[in-house]
Amino acid sequence: FYGTTIAGGNANAICGSSGCGVAFKIDTHGLITQLYAFCTLDNCVDGGVPARLSFDLTDTPIGLTSVGGTHHGGTLFKLATAYQNLFNCKCTTELCLLGKNPSGGLVMDTNSFIYGVMNDGGVNKTGGTVIKYTPPE
To answer: How far apart are CA 61 and CA 16, in angstroms?
Structure first.
């Protein structure tokens, strides 16, 4: 069983005193292992407040964060042997075409395209959007 928390882990100015969240797994014996504590990197470039974990075609956990990243709009990440940032959301008050504030998990199709849902942003600024990430070849 894999999951995330939206609090706990590292506390800082970006996420607040309740923490930026963690990713974890629970094995068949009930042993809980923390996979990653978010906002570990300077200026929270690794993101924080993660949404639900999903899995890519190799069963590697992937997910979205709603804060942090290099542009402070959240991240798309995977947790292979270590944290790997795949994409940084970039939003300004005027324009946020890719959206922000992820909802739920991600889905990967057979061509390795990753899809996710954002609650805010998009063309109408507040209606949300669906994102599609194409991994580099």
So the answer is: 25
**CA 42, CA 64: separation in Å to the nearest integer?**
18
88: helix, coil or strand?
strand
- Do 70 and 93 touch, CB atoms closer than 8 A? no
| Whole-number Å distance between alpha carbons of 65 and 89 | 9
Q: Are 97 and 122 in contact (CB under 8 A)?
A: yes
pLDDT digits 0-9 by tens, 13-33: 888 899 999 999 999 999 999
DSSP at 131: E
Q: How many Cα atoms occupy the beta-carbon half-sphere of 41 within 13 Å?
A: 14
Q: What is the pTM of this model?
A: 0.84
